[in-house]
Design goal:
Elements: H1 2-14, H2 17-24, H3 29-39, E1 49-50, H4 53-57, E2 60-62, H5 70-75, E3 79-87, E4 93-100, H6 103-113, E5 117-118, E6 121-123, E7 126-128, E8 130-138
Parallel strand pairs: 1-8
Antiparallel strand pairs: 2-5, 3-4, 3-8, 6-7
Helix pairs in contact: 1-2
C-alpha cells in the first residue's frame, strides 16, 4: 500500500489520469482520450491556445458583417451573439459554435463569422491554433 501511495502522488504531480484508473483497478476509456489531448503540444489542433477576444480582434484581416435577418428586424429582436471559436494556424475559423444569443440572430452570426480570416497567432515565432470568444452585435435601431 505504501508503494502505491507514493506512485499515486508522483502520478498526480505528472498529471496522468490513466495511472489513477490503473491504481484503483478500474478502467476508464475517457482517461486515454484525455491523456492523449494533454500530451498534445500547446497550439496544436488538439490543444489550441486560449487567446483573449481583444488580442484576436487585433489580428482580424477580413471581416464579413452579418446580415440582419428581416424577421428578426420585424420582430424587434436585437442583442449579441456570443460564439466559441477555434482559429487554425493559417488564420481561418476551423470550429465555431454559439454560446448564447437570440435564436433568430444565431445563423446570421455564424454565417458571417465563418468567413472571417485572421493573421495567424504566433507562439514562440510559430503559427498555432487558438481558442477564443467572438461576439457579434445586432441593433435593430441601426
Amino acid at each position: 500500500m505504501k508503494v502505491q501511495a507514493s506512485f499515486l502522488a508522483v502520478m498526480l504531480v505528472a498529471g496522468s489520469t490513466v495511472a489513477l484508473g490503473q491504481i484503483s483497478g478500474t478502467s476508464n476509456a475517457n482517461a486515454q482520450v484525455q491523456d492523449t489531448a494533454n500530451n498534445a503540444l500547446p497550439g496544436s489542433k488538439d490543444r489550441p491556445v486560449r487567446v483573449s477576444s481583444g488580442v484576436i480582434a487585433g489580428l482580424l484581416l477580413h471581416k464579413v458583417d452579418p446580415v440582419y435577418p428581416q424577421d428578426a428586424k420585424d420582430s424587434g429582436v436585437s442583442g449579441s451573439v456570443v460564439m466559441a471559436a477555434v482559429i487554425n494556424d493559417q488564420g481561418k475559423i476551423s470550429k465555431l459554435s454559439v454560446i448564447s444569443g437570440p435564436e433568430k440572430l444565431r445563423d446570421a452570426a455564424l454565417e458571417a463569422v465563418n468567413q472571417w480570416t485572421y493573421k495567424p497567432y504566433l507562439l514562440n515565432g510559430k503559427p498555432v491554433f487558438v481558442q477564443t470568444v467572438i461576439t457579434t452585435n445586432f441593433d435593430v435601431a441601426r
